[in-house]
C-alpha cells in the first residue's frame, strides 16, 4: 500500500545520515509537503523548494524558542552573534548589510584566485610525501582554512585556531547536547569574536590589502563593530567548513568512479561543471531552515504562521522532473541550475569563491601525470543533521 502514514523523515536517524536519498525519493513521490509530528515541515520537490527560497513569507530569523533567539542576546554571546549574521536577517536589514559586505568580499575573492592555485599546489605537494592520507584533515582542511585566511587578511599562522573556532561556530546550528557544551561554545565564540575585533583594530591603525582592512575603512556608522566582526566569523566558518566538505564530497564521487572522468583534465569551465555536478549529487547543506511569517498554502497543504520548515535542497537536486537520470553522475552534461547554493535573497555569497577553490584543488591533486590516488570504499559521514560532511576520506597514494 502506498499511503503516507508510514512515511517519515528523521534527520538524525543513523540510516538517514548514512544515506538520506531513498527517503527523499519516497517523500517527493508520496508526500512532498511532509509534516513531522516532532514539529516541522519538510519540502522535497525542486519546484516547491525553489519557490519557498524566493518567498519573503519564509523568514530566516532564529526560531522563537531557540537559545539563540534575539531575546537572549544580552544573556549569551551565541545569541548576539547569530542575530548579527546576514544568514539570519530578513528584508531591508538583510539586503543592506549583505550588499555592504558583498561588494568588498567579492572583490577580494576575485583578486585572490591566483593564490588559490599556488596554495593548492603547496598542499598537494605535501600529500605526495605520504602513502596514506585522510583527505579531510590532510588536504581539504589546511587548504580551505589557509585560503579564507588569505582573503580575510588573517595571518597564515592563525589558520588552525580559526579552523577550531569555526568548527564550534557551526555546532550552534544543530542540537546542543547540554548546558556545559553550550557554555563552552559561548566561550569559544567570545574568544573568536575578540580575536577578529583585535585584527580589526590592528588594520584600522595599519591597513593592509585585505578584506578586514577594506571593511573597517568603509564603516560609516550604519554597521556596528560586532556586526562586522560576527559576519567575518561567518565568512571564515563558511569558508572553512563548507569548502572542506564541498571539496571532499567532490573527491568522494571522483574516487568512486572506475576511471577519473575526462572533464577533470579539461578547461576551467569543464572542471567547474564537474564540480557543480558533484555538489548537486552530494550537497554539503542538505536542507535550509525557515519560519513562516504568516499562513502559507503549498502543495495543497496549509502551513500555519510560525511553522518551522526545512527546505530540502539535496532532495530537490535529485528531483527527476528537473534532472534527467538524477542519481547518475554526468560530469560533462549541462544540467539545470542545482540548489546546493540555495536561491533568492540568501543565495550563497561564497559560491563563486568555492567553485574557484575546488577547481584549483582538483587540478593540483590530479595533474595529467600525477600519482594514483585511490580511496577506501567506506565513507563515514558526520552525524550532523542537515550537513552532508565527511568525517574522514581515507586514500592511498602511489606513484
Ligand atoms: C560548497 C560550498 C558551499 C555550499 C554548499 C554553500 C551553501 C550555502 C547555502 C545553501 C546558502 C543559502 C542559505 C539560505 O538560503 O538561507 C548559503 C549562504 C551563505 N554562504 Fe555558502 N555555501 C558554500 C560555501 C561558502 C563559502 C566558501 C562562503 C564564504 C567564504 C559562503 C558564505 C555564505 C554566506 C555568507 C551565506 C549567507 C548569505 C545570506 O544569508 O545572504 N558559503 N551557502
Describe, in short, the structure shown.
By secondary structure, this protein is an alpha+beta fold. It has 14 helices and twelve strands.
Overall number of domains: 1
Second-tier CATH architecture: Orthogonal Bundle
> How many strand units?
12
State the separation between the terminal residues, measured CA to CA.
54 Å
Number of helices, where a helix is a run of at least 4 consecutive DSSP H or I residues: 14
Bound molecules: protoporphyrin IX containing FE
Shape: globular
Low-confidence stretches: none
CATH superfamily: Cytochrome P450
Largest sheet: 5 strands, mixed
Structural class call reads alpha+beta
Helical residues, percent: 40-55%
Could you characterize the architecture of this molecule?
About 50% of the residues lie in helices and about 10% in strands. The chain is an alpha+beta fold. It has one domain (about 15-399): Cytochrome p450. The strands form four sheets. The protein has a five-stranded mixed sheet, covered by helices on one side. The longest helix has about 30 residues, at about 225-255. It is globular and about 60 Å long. The N and C termini lie far apart (about 55 Å).
Amino acid at each position: 500500500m502506498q499511503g503516507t502514514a508510514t512515511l517519515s523523515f528523521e534527520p538524525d536517524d543513523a540510516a538517514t545520515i548514512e544515506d538520506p536519498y531513498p527517503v527523499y525519493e519516497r517523500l517527493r513521490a508520496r508526500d512532498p509537503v511532509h509534516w513531522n509530528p516532532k514539529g516541522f515541515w519538510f519540502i522535497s520537490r525542486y519546484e516547491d523548494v525553489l519557490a519557498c527560497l524566493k518567498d519573503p513569507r519564509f523568514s530566516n530569523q532564529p526560531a522563537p524558542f531557540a537559545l539563540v533567539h534575539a531575546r537572549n542576546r544580552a544573556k549569551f554571546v551565541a545569541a548576539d552573534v547569530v542575530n548579527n549574521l546576514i544568514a539570519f536577517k530578513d528584508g531591508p536589514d538583510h539586503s543592506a548589510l549583505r550588499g555592504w559586505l558583498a561588494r568588498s568580499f567579492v572583490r577580494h575573492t576575485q583578486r585572490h584566485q591566483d593564490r588559490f592555485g599556488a596554495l593548492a599546489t603547496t598542499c598537494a605537494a605535501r600529500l605526495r610525501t605520504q602513502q596514506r592520507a585522510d583527505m579531510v584533515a590532510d588536504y581539504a582542511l589546511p587548504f580551505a582554512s589557509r585560503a579564507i585566511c588569505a582573503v580575510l587578511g588573517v595571518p597564515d599562522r592563525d589558520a588552525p585556531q580559526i579552523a577550531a573556532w569555526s568548527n564550534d561556530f557551526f555546532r550552534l546550528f544543530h542540537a546542543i547536547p547540554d548546558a556545559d557544551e553550550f557554555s563552552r561554545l559561548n566561550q569559544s565564540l567570545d574568544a573568536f569574536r575578540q580575536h577578529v575585533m583585535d585584527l580589526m583594530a590592528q588594520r584600522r591603525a595599519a591597513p593592509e590589502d585585505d578584506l578586514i582592512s577594506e571593511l573597517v575603512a568603509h564603516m560609516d556608522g550604519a554597521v556596528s563593530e560586532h556586526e562586522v566582526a560576527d559576519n567575518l566569523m561567518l565568512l571564515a566558518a563558511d569558508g572553512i567548513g563548507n569548502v572542506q566538505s564541498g571539496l571532499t564530497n567532490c573527491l568522494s564521487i571522483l574516487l568512486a568512479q572506475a576511471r577519473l572522468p575526462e572533464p577533470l583534465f579539461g578547461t576551467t569551465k569543464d572542471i567547474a561543471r564537474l564540480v557543480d555536478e558533484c555538489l548537486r549529487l552530494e550537497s554539503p547543506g542538505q536542507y535550509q531552515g525557515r519560519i513562516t511569517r504568516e499562513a502559507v498554502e503549498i502543495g495543497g497543504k496549509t502551513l500555519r504562521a510560525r511553522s518551522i520548515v526545512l527546505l530540502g535542497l539535496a532532495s530537490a537536486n535529485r528531483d527527476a522532473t528537473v534532472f534527467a537520470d538524477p542519481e547518475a553522475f554526468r560530469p560533462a552534461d549541462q544540467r539545470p541550475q542545482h540548489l546546493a547554493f540555495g536561491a533568492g535573497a540568501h543565495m550563497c555569497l561564497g559560491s563563486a569563491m568555492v567553485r574557484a577553490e575546488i577547481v584549483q584543488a582538483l587540478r593540483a591533486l590530479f595533474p595529467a601525470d600525477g600519482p594514483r590516488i585511490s580511496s577506501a570504499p567506506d565513507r563515514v559521514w558526520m552525524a550532523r543533521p542537515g550537513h552532508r560532511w565527511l568525517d574522514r576520506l581515507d586514500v592511498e597514494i602511489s606513484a
